[in-house]
Amino acid sequence: MKNKYVNRSKISEAKFRQLIRYFSLDLTAIQITELIGLNRNTVNRYLTEIRKKILTYSSAISPLTEVNISCLDTSNFDSLCVLIREMDGQIYTETIPKEVAWNPDNTLKNEDLQKTGYDLVIDFETGKQFFLKENSIGSENHQRMKINRIESFWGNAKSRLAKFKGMHSSTLKYHVKECEFRFNNRNKDLYQLLLKILRNDPLF
Question: Which domain of life does the UniProt lineage start with (predicted)?
Answer without folding.
Answer: Bacteria
